[in-house]
Specification:
Layout lengths: L16 H17 L3 H12 L4 H22 L7
Length: 81
């Protein structure tokens, strides 16, 4: 499971274009201002792995959507580090 190395993985174009754009813009603003240190650390880790900027950005957007789902599901607040 952790050994998968794909050479041609692209972002899926399914779903809402506006939601995808909003997530990416939220991640970019969070990274520029360094407001969310967990997201910044995740981005830096992906860049250290050799991922391009856009790939790391989409990975952060995916991480953000997972966090949002967990917050809504558990009905708890977000605690930034």
């Amino acid at each position: 499971s952790g050994k998968f190395t794909a050479t041609r993985n692209r972002i899926t174009k399914r779903g809402s274009r506006q939601l995808r754009y909003a997530l990416v813009m939220a991640v970019q603003c969070g990274l520029i201002r360094s407001r969310n240190m967990r997201l910044k650390a995740f981005y830096d880790r992906k860049r250290a792995e050799g991922k391009p900027h856009k790939v790391a950005l989409i990975a952060c957007a995916n991480k953000l959507i997972h966090w949002l789902y967990a917050i809504l599901k558990n009905k708890k607040g977000f605690r930034p580090i």
